[in-house]
Amino acid sequence: MSRILVVDDDAALLHTLRLNLLAREYDVDTAETGEQALALARELPPDLAIVDLGLPDMDGLAVIEQLRRHSSLPILVLSARGEQEDKIAALDAGSDDHISKPFGMAELLARVRAGLRRSSLADTGTATVTTDAFTLDLNARTARTAFGAVHLTPTEWHLLEELVRHPGRLVSQLDLLRAVWGPAYGEESRHYLRVYMAQLRRKLEPDPSSPRHLITVAGSGYRFDC
Q1: pTM for the model
Q2: What is the pLDDT along the chain (226 residues), one digit of tens a residue?
Q3: Bridging pattern class, strands 171-172 and 221-224
Q4: Domains of the chain: which residue ranges?
Q5: In the CATH scheme, what is the code of domain 3-119?
Q6: Which residues, listed in sequence order, are joined to residue 99 by a DSSP beta bridge?
Q7: Residue 52 is inside which H or E element, if any?
Q8: Is 128-224 assigned to CATH 1.10.10.10?
Q9: How many helices (H) and strands (E) does the chain have?
């Protein structure tokens, strides 16, 4: 049974989310402040966190950053802030998905299922991808270059996995957006891909300005070349 931490200062919404998640047989912990959330996460590590950005004692971005320091758990952001800059800031802080208030419960539950599915342990066996620049162990979720281990965020890993599991094949922008961020994300969210692909190239490519392995196919999508 997966444990979910829900952080929101709206007591009525918190109660509704708790009831709906319990009805789907999740273990649920709730917090109305950032400090409560971080204390709960230390005591009862969650498998997924749902975090509101507008908390009374600290910015939700700070909660995400602190959760991310100690865990690769999926983090779903709730926010009444609709600006793209806020969504990007949350993603950069370490969140994996974003849902704007007001939202439908069915959509939120689908995003919870998708987040837990992405973070589930890989099947036993070895899945190693080796290039002249880096080596990936997809089961262990480790990456190494000639300079040593490289830390990748959960979102970076998911995006990278979508590409390396289809070597030499164009993966469209829309397919990547929907695979990594969910079915509600469309072409208007292409900036997410640009931001994360740039981060992956800085971490893995010897010359990020002239990548050999993480290739942009202009106007279409991206391709992984061994």
Answers
A1: 0.58
A2: 799 999 999 999 999 999 999 999 999 999 999 999 999 999 999 999 999 998 999 999 999 999 988 787 889 999 876 666 777 788 778 887 888 888 899 989 988 987 787 665 333 344 788 899 999 987 778 899 999 999 998 889 889 988 887 787 888 888 888 778 776 666 556 787 889 999 999 999 999 999 999 999 887 889 998 8
A3: antiparallel
A4: 3-119, 128-224
A5: 3.40.50.2300
A6: 78
A7: strand 48-52
A8: yes
A9: 8, 12
